[in-house]
Predict the structure.
Amino acid sequence: MKKFLLIVSSIGIAFFLFIWLSQSHFSVASAIPWDIKVLQSEDTPDGKAILFEDNQDHSFGVALVDRKFGFLYQYYIGTNGYHLDPGKPFQASGLTDDKHFIVGIKTAEDSNIKYITLGNHLDEVAPSETYDLTLKEVRNHEEEYYITEVKDHYAFFVIDEYTDSTWTIRGFDGNGNLIADKLFGAEERFVNR
């Protein structure tokens, strides 16, 4: 009887270990369930946040992968299939969990966007309104913004939380002029063009 219980227990442990290891990978890219190329990544306390491009249809997305034992990666959550619509200045993809808010943004090649910001300090600006804002003004309110430089038409943010403000996205040219925005609840648009 002891031998039978030992065999059954060993088979059960082996089965669960096999299932768990089959979902684990040695590289971040192979942990993502699509055929992807990692564009940018950032370490998180639990693993990595990833901005990626799909090798098949060149769409993009973002994902979180967990790190196990310091060298294995497991897919946790992600988005995929985001394409830049013609005539739009950029397309954003975001996801949130209880610890992170991750945003990946692809800019149009002809948009001249060099910097992307998340955040807002302006009182209500309606999507139909025009307004003036420069990157210098944003930097003067840095406690209310996240700023990054666009690299190969992509920007990537890993921040603590999702808010209406952090889903307000703006694009600026190399001179700090506002080119495009996506106000909370509105579509991406070119401004001051």
User: Anything to note?
Assistant: The chain is about 15% helix and 40% strand. The first strand starts at residue 36 and ends at 44. The mean pLDDT is 86.
